[in-house]
Amino acid sequence: MKNDATAHLGHISSFLAMDVFARAEELEKQGREIIHLEFGEPDFPTPEIISKVGIDSIKKARTRYTHTQGIEDFRNAVVEKYKNQYSVDIKPSQIMTSSGSSILLYLAIRMLVPPGDEIIMSDLCYACYDNLAMIGGAKPVRVSLRLENGFQLDMDEVRKALTPKTRAILINSPMNPTGTVLDRQCMRELAELGIPVISDEIYADLTYEGEVSSMLQFTDNCVVLNGLSKYYAMTGWRLGYMIMNPEWIGVASKMHQNMMISAAHFVQDAGTTALKESEPECRKMAEEFDKRRRFLLKRLKEIGLDPGYNPVGAFYVFLRYPDQGRKSLDVSMDILDRIGVAMTPGIDFGPAGEGFIRISYANSLENIDEAVSRLQKYFFS
Ligand SMILES: Cc1ncc(COP(=O)(O)O)c(C=O)c1O
User: Fold this and answer.
1) Can you tell me whether residue 277 is helix, strand or coil?
2) Ligand 1 centroid vs 73 CA: distance in angstroms?
3) Residue-wise pLDDT tens digits, 190-234
4) Can you list the domains of the chain with their CATH numbers?
């Protein structure tokens, strides 16, 4: 008997990066050597100073539930970070800590956008944004980003997308998949719209040129999302936080208590050390990413694949490939099969990503070099 009990979620899509990875694994089982440039995950281990605190904390049996918003030390460390980096004064009571920022993004959307109402997001954006909105019953309304504009948000198009049902605007800077930073004027204008902004700042510390801003510098009518996965190389620890308008924390707390109870205590201990003491180690990783970024851009230009814009943050380059007649999923899979380089098809990030592939440079210089040489053969010989 056909059972379509889950049909109402049939429109939720999987991460194509995962599909590429699954195919890459199949090829590896057949003995092929694959260069992995599909994932947005640091290839470095978590700095020792952080892991040690986590291990010690488990040994001390700090393995129970905590306050739903997170332990005081961790929240105080977040307050310090935002004070030092952005000169904004927030209070520990405005912070919610959880097991990664993904669940907090869902919570923020669910909190601000009633089912059936609209949330504006860019077309190009992190693959899960529209899925999370739809899981929460909200309607994603997408504003296109174009290479010709350096992938900047066009504020006239944002204004055109506003309707009486618009309840929030979701931004991400530096951005996945382009690595671009939203300019300050645009953030100021977003704040002036008076609609709550959800600002995903998870890549903010991985900004290699110019200055990155926090939405909190422009308005308190916002939720700022951040997490320790990227800059601190802690993806598998699952630790993230959000900072929000004080009026919303009551509802956010009730939702979080019901959904998550709390983040793990020992993970929060490790996270506190990460925020307070791991800057030298993390800076070194960021410098290494920047070296790879510059190297990748130089090599791509050498072989005639100039991305045509400057990706200044995160660890991604979004590349328009030469053969525009082919779909990005087909191109990614064909590149993987024929030359053993795994990259994410642009369509994973929205319709505006068709014709592009995302290259993650969270891999060694040697592998990046080899991948570009293979791409040269693939496209030009
Ligand atoms: C823009 C963006 N936000 C959030 C996340 C998820 O991070 P977390 O590990 O904190 O759930 C990612 C992961 O790739 C991301 O690229």
Assistant:
1) helix
2) 23
3) 999 999 999 999 999 999 999 999 999 999 999 999 999 999 999
4) 7-45+280-380 (3.90.1150.10), 48-277 (3.40.640.10)
Residue 103 near residue 153 (C-beta atoms within 8 A): no
Report the C-alpha gap between 243 and 227 in whole angstroms: 11
Using the mean position of ligand 1's atoms as its centre, give its distance from the Cα of residue 238 in Å.
10
Q: pTM to 2 decimals?
A: 0.96
With a 6 A CB cut-off, is 202 part of the ligand 1 pocket? yes
Which residues, 6+ apart, have CB-to-CB distance to 228 below 8 Å?
Answer: 234, 237, 239, 240, 271, 274, 275
Q: Is 8 exposed, middle or buried (0-12, 13-18, 19+ CB in 10 A)?
A: exposed
Residues 252, 223: Cα–Cα separation, whole Å = 11
> Of 15, 78, 99, 102, which is best to mutate to test ligand 1, by the most ligand atoms within 8 angstroms of its C-beta?
102
Task: Convert the pLDDT of each residue in 315-357 to its tens digit.
Answer: 999 999 998 899 999 999 999 999 999 999 999 999 999 999 9
Question: Ligand 1 centre and the CA of 99: distance in Å?
Answer: 12
Task: Give 11's DSSP letter.
Answer: T
User: What is the C-alpha separation between 199 and 175, in angstroms, rounded?
Assistant: 11
| Ligand 1 atom, smallest distance to 105 CA | 4
pLDDT in tens, 231-258: 999 999 999 999 999 999 999 999 999 9
